[in-house]
Amino acid sequence: MTECIAAEVALGHMSGPFTHEEMHLIFGGHFRTIPVGLVEKDPIKGTFCLIQHFSKADKLGVSVNSQLDSDNFPTHWHSAYTMADYLSFMSCLPFPHFTMHMLSVLFYFILSVVP
C-alpha cells in the first residue's frame, strides 16, 4: 500500500503525506477523508490498483458520495462509435497541437451542451 501511494504522489496524482494539523490549515477547518484500498489487477504479475472509496460510509452512515446531489452533476453516456466518428472528423482539421486528451474534453463538452 505504501509503495502504491508513494507512486501516486510521485506522479502528481496525490499529495502528501500531511499531518492532521496541516490538513486543517490547508482546508481552513474541518475536512473529510476517504479510505483507500488495493484491488488486484493481475494475479499472475502480482500487480494492484489503488482505489479511493468515495462511497464508504463512516460511523454515522455518511460518505463523500452520499453528500452529493447527482442531479447537480449529470452524466452523459455516448458510444465508442460516436467518439471514433468524432475523432476521425477532428483528425482532418489542421490542429496538430490537439492531443487526445484535449479532443476528449472538447468532445464531452460539445455532446453535453449541444442538445
Overall description:
The protein folds into two domains: 69 residues, no CATH class; 34 residues, no CATH class. The longest helix has 14 residues. By secondary structure, the protein is of the alpha+beta class. It has four helices and two strands, in the order H-H-E-E-H-H.
What's this, in brief?
The chain is an alpha+beta fold. 37% of the residues lie in helices and 11% in strands.
Keywords for this structure?
115 residues, alpha+beta, 2 domains, two-stranded antiparallel ribbon
Level of helix content?
25-40%
Order the strands across the largest sheet as they lie in space: 1-2
Uncertain segments: none
Overall 3D form: extended
Strand content: 5-15%
How many helical elements? 4
Overall number of structural domains:
2
Radius of gyration: 20 Å
Strand/helix succession: HHEEHH
List the helices and strands and how they pair.
Elements: H1 2-10, H2 20-27, E1 36-42, E2 47-52, H3 80-91, H4 100-113
Antiparallel strand pairs: 1-2
